[in-house]
Design a protein that fits this description.
- The complex is a heterodimer of chains A (about 400) and B (about 270).
- With about 400 residues, chain A is α+β, with helices and mostly antiparallel strands.
- Chain A is about 20% helix and about 35% strand.
- Chain A has a six-stranded mixed β-sheet, with helices on both faces. In chain A, strands 13-12-11-14-20 form a five-stranded antiparallel β-sheet. A five-stranded antiparallel β-sheet of chain A has the order 15-19-16-17-18, with no helix packed on it.
- In chain A, strand 11 and strand 12 form a beta hairpin.
- The longest helix of chain A is centred in the middle third of the chain and has 18 residues.
- The two termini of chain B are about 45 Å apart.
- The relative contact order of chain B is 0.13.
- Chain B has about 270 residues and is mainly α.
- Chain B is built from eleven helices and no strands.
- Chain B is globular.
- Chains A and B meet through helix 3 of A and helix 7 and helix 8 of B.
């Protein structure tokens, strides 16, 4: 029973994936899960399997169905069809209070009439756990988030970051098998958000617990997750490790959402042995063969993404030679962002975004004539209508 | 320039002055009769005219030696306690239901609950008198209590509803997520967070019942509540002892209002 209190359980020093049941079952398995509201489909039928100890992020713009999907896992929303299993146990028909999962809400939602310690002990106390065990557990959880000694405080004395930390350990106090997090950091200042991202990642590593995280912040998703599911209009558009989806976005939407802004429409001119030759409104582009573009034929319309960090930017010296993967333009704007410098470059009919490490950046200013060159590896080809993952 | 600025400053100052004057006049109009009443309850001469010749407590002595006044106080307290209890017991589940869910006809139900507050008290009183007659019920404190409950429920509803509408439903979701079933959610989250508002509303009902006259007048049997004692006394003689009873009633209401303020206002901070 997930309802039992395991107070003696060590909180630190566990290997990832360690404490979870050594079962062959996935931590969470969704089969054909679907949510329809009166006239709208919030989540189209989808399957998703999350491994024990994994940190999976549902990433997407607001209204893409990511929160609805999370709430269906928590039991706060009933699916219109499909099933939810946790470690092989079907929990579809169980109310939230009978599921071995806990949710951290976007707002801290601490109980205002209870102290910090009483908030954290809320779950264990409901299960009639021994009072001294609860107290010890609350204290160790407060230490986990650097709030030792805050137990007797009133919750309205806490700052936003502290309140969200308390909400996090209140959810952990129930020893959930899976922790669900619904944009828990989105209401916080940037600095506190960055710090809590690190703390969360650290806690995930130490507890080895399965985390399912919802966010609309692509940087947060890429930096924290083992796997990211990019969602749009109630469907998962792409599922993969942060490196995979960043290197190989499957659709222009995913590319743009990840901040890869150089998305170009092109027509396939030729399929050669090791790649494609494309025509993008006069610009010839040679690319390597990406897995997704395997079935592309000459004459097909495709989109290509050129990653901003894979473009070389150099001052234009005289009339350069024309060739593939090379274009001339004018620097439109320069934005210094600490470790990198972002350039906006205008070329005939198109705007480019180029990111250069700050120590490699020259002294280009707006108005300078430049040439852009990029290697085959920096381009990703996407078929015009992206395939829907099953 | 300087002149302009000075004028404007003066204007601004005068405008604040005007507002203060306005509020002052309102307060005088509101409270002058009450002040006069309380003042004359301590004045020796019986004709209630200025100038005041001397002060005395004899009117209070007279009131407290009058058994009808004392039994009126006891009766009023008795009725108020029952009304407060019944309204709270009936009203709380009704507000919980109506403020937290919408169902077919919930708007109509709300309108019906609020209707007694909009009816003239005298109409309510007369119609209750007819009803009790048709039902062959003997007029007594029971019929008074029934009438006052009907009259007080809308006020109870309005006060508690204001609080419950602002209740953060996500707190319930959080409690549910942490393992609380329906009963535990009510006991550990909803009840402690709404109790101050409910208690405050109960006290307001006590105050309403304490000085209710119109409905009581039509539905009472052979006993009298304090307002009815005053009324019958004032019909016979106007003397400062009526003022003394009035002052006592005001004191009673004031105590309840001050306690209520503590519950309702403080629970919102």
């Amino acid at each position: 029973m997930g309802a039992e209190l395991r107070a003696s359980r060590p909180l630190a020093g566990e290997a990832p994936g360690g404490p979870a049941a050594p079962s062959a079952h996935p931590a969470v398995e969704l089969k054909g899960i679907e949510k329809r509201f009166l006239t709208q489909v919030a989540v189209h039928p989808l399957d998703l399997s999350i491994a024990p100890g994994e940190f999976l992020t549902l990433l997407g713009p607001s209204g893409c169905g990511k929160t609805t999907l999370l709430r269906m896992i928590a039991g706060l929303e009933l699916p219109s069809a499909g099933s939810v299993s946790v470690f092989g146990e079907d929990v579809t028909d169980r109310p939230p209070n009978k599921r071995p999962l806990n949710l951290v809400f976007q707002k801290a939602t601490l109980f205002p009439h209870l102290s910090v310690a009483e908030n954290i002990g809320f779950g264990p106390k409901l299960r009639r756990a021994d009072r001294r065990e609860v107290a010890a557990k609350v204290e160790s959880l407060l230490e986990l988030v650097d709030l030792a000694g805050y137990g007797p405080r009133r919750v309205n004395e806490l700052s936003g970051g502290q309140a969200q930390r308390v909400a996090l350990v209140r959810a952990l106090a129930n020893d959930p098998k899976v922790l669900l997090l619904d944009e828990p950091l989105s209401a916080l200042d940037l600095a506190i958000r960055r710090q809590l991202q690190r703390e969360l990642k650290d806690i995930h590593r130490r507890l080895g617990m399965t985390f399912i995280y919802v966010t609309h912040d692509q940087e947060e998703a890429l930096s924290m997750s083992d796997r990211v599911a990019v969602m749009r209009d109630g469907r998962i558009q792409q599922l993969g490790s942060p490196v995979e989806i960043y290197r190989n976005p499957c659709s222009p939407f995913v590319a743009r959402f990840l901040g890869l802004v150089n998305v170009i429409d092109a027509v396939v001119k030729d399929v050669v042995a090791d790649g494609l030759v494309l025509d993008a409104a006069g610009l010839t582009v040679r690319t390597g063969r990406s897995a997704d573009a395997g079935s592309v034929q000459a004459g097909d319309k495709v989109s290509i993404v050129v990653r901003p960090d894979c473009i070389d930017l150099s001052p234009l010296r005289g009339a350069g030679a024309t060739g593939a993967n090379r274009v001339e333009g004018i620097v439109a704007d320069v934005r210094f962002a600490g470790s990198v410098v972002h350039y906006g470059v205008s070329t005939p009919g198109r705007d480019w975004q180029v990111s250069v490490p700050a120590n490699h950046a020259g002294d280009l200013v707006a108005g300078d004539a430049v040439e852009l060159t990029f290697g085959e590896a920096g381009c990703v080809v996407m078929a015009e209508s992206p395939k829907q993952p099953a | 320039m300087n002149l302009l600025r000075a004028t404007r400053r003066q204007l601004r100052r005068r405008r604040i002055g005007a507002l203060q004057l306005y509020v002052g006049v309102i307060f005088v109009i509101l409270f002058f009769p009450i002040v006069v009443l309380v003042l004359f309850s301590f004045v020796r001469s019986g004709d209630m005219r200025f100038p005041i010749t001397g002060f005395t407590l004899s009117w209070y002595r007279e009131v407290f030696s009058d058994s009808s006044v004392l039994s009126g106080i006891v009766t009023s307290l008795e009725v108020a306690l029952f009304v407060g209890l019944i309204v709270t017991v009936i009203g709380t589940p009704a507000v919980m239901l109506l403020s937290r869910s919408r169902f077919r006809g919930s708007g109509a139900v709300t309108a019906l609950i609020l209707a007694p507050a909009t009816l003239p008290g005298i109409v309510l009183g007369v119609s209750l008198l007819n009803l009790f007659g048709d039902l062959k019920m003997t007029l007594s404190l029971v019929t008074v209590t029934v009438g006052q409950v009907i009259y007080c429920i809308p006020f109870f509803y309005l006060i508690v509803n204001a609080r419950l509408r602002n209740f953060d439903r996500q707190l319930e979701e959080a409690a549910m997520d942490l393992g609380a079933g329906p009963f535990q959610r009510f006991r550990r989250v909803i009840a402690p967070l709404t109790a101050p508002a409910i208690l405050g509303a109960t006290l307001v009902v006590l105050a309403l019942s304490w000085d209710e006259f119109q409905i009581t007048f039509f539905t009472i049997g052979d006993q009298s509540t304090l307002p009815l004692v005053i009324w019958s006394r004032a019909r016979r003689v106007i003397d400062p002892s009526v003022n003394a009873i009035g002052a006592l009633m005001i004191a009673g209401s004031l105590v309840i209002v001050l306690i209520t303020r503590r519950f309702i206002v403080d629970s919102y901070s």
